[in-house]
Amino acid sequence: MTPATSLFAPVEADLRILADNLKQLVGNRHPILFIAAEHLFGAGGKRIRPAIVLLISRATMLDQDITARHRRLAEITEMIHTASLVHDDVVDESEVRRGVPTVHSLFGNRIAILAGDFLFAQSSWYLANLDNLEVVKLLSEVIMDLATGEIQQGSNRFDTSISIETYIQKSYYKTASLVANSAKAAGILSEVSKDVAEHLYAYGRHLGIAFQIVDDILDFTSTAETLGKPVGSDLKSGNLTAPVLFALAEKPYLEVLIERKFAQTGDLEQALDLVQASQGIQKARDLAAHHTKLAIDHLAVLPPSESHQTLINIAEYGLSRLY
Residue 106: is its pLDDT beyond 80? Predict the structure, then answer.
């Protein structure tokens, strides 16, 4: 399996510039926030979201170099993503992220929430300075969607009646909205046609949904070391994902275990066994493959290029993490 970072050959130099710029963008006026931001951006991560923005920028600007506004959009995308992770970790009470301690575990919940707020505010300020109202609207919608997705997930905990459609909608809000809207925004900055911009949005939408489904499958099939969190932690917290929703149709007793919130000894282990014994994981794989194919199909509007091929490779890489 190809590691994600080796996929980004056409924009490797761009991503190095981005890594340097992210720390500078936060500034050092607030020492504790600066330390928190350095910790976050120093933790690395795969940088898939800004890489997609940069690749789409290059794939739509073949006969000229990408602009400073394209680069700033990629930086804004990573800032929004990072801010959402800081808040997610507080909500989920996660102690580790990407193998390093979370901001709230180092600095406390108060600083973590303020650091997330600060990054959202900074990203909004830099966004306004792009002087493109359509792009401002797209990325502002992402910040609303992130909050909507988190609220939806929190209010649906341990609810065995939610549908796959509701799960897909939540996955869009929490993961795919940022990929979809930033992909479209990159096209808009390249002055592509409305039709091409919509195809770029659809690529990001289906890619983001596929990535989320794959992450949710790995919560059952991977190891704690690889995940950086205990296996089955989503299920334990009442977050019912695609493998569980599909398994519920086959294994009625799973509903009993979930609705009593795994109150009895061995409940969680039994629930994990039921998911494994069902077709839930395979059906979730099929769903992820479906969205991956749709994402790739929407790229057909772009002319052939190394960046275009890399966007296809990223979609295929997402699915390959399952095998």
Answer: yes
Backbone φ and ψ for 230, nearest 5 degrees, come out as: -60, 145
Please name which of 129, 34, 116, 118 lies closest in space to residue 72, comparing C-alpha atoms. Answer: 129
Higher pLDDT, 180 or 37: 180
- Maximum alpha-carbon separation in the chain: 64
> In 3D, which of 155, 186, 152, 194 has the Cα closest to residue 172?
152
Query: How big, in percent rounded to 5, are the helix, strand and coil portions of the chain?
Result: 75, 0, 25
Q: Total structural domains in the chain?
A: 1
Higher pLDDT, 34 or 7: 7
pLDDT at 303: 97
Q: Please write the tens of the pLDDT for every residue from 222-236.
A: 876 676 667 788 999
pLDDT(28) > 90 = no
Contact 192, 280 (CB under 8 A): no
Q: Give the separation between CA 69 and CA 238, rounded to whole angstroms.
A: 41
Structural contact between residues 181 and 201, judged by C-beta atoms closer than 8 angstroms: yes
For the chain, count helices (H), then strands (E): 17, 2
Instruction: Indicate the DSSP class of residue 279.
Output: S
Q: What is the pLDDT of residues 164-178, one digit of tens each?
A: 999 999 999 999 999
Q: Could you read off the pLDDT of 44-67 as tens digits, one per residue? A: 567 899 999 999 999 999 999 999
CATH no. for residue 250? 1.10.600.10
Identify the domain containing residue 303 by its residue range. Answer: 4-320
Contacts of residue 294, defined as CB under 8 A and 6 or more positions apart, other chains included, come to 202, 206
Is the sign of the CA dihedral 277, 278, 282, 287 positive or negative?
Answer: negative
159 near 240, Cβ under 8 Å? Answer: yes
Comparing C-alpha atoms, which of 150, 76, 90 is closest to residue 119? 76
pTM of the model: 0.93
Q: How far apart are CA 173 and CA 170, in angstroms?
A: 5
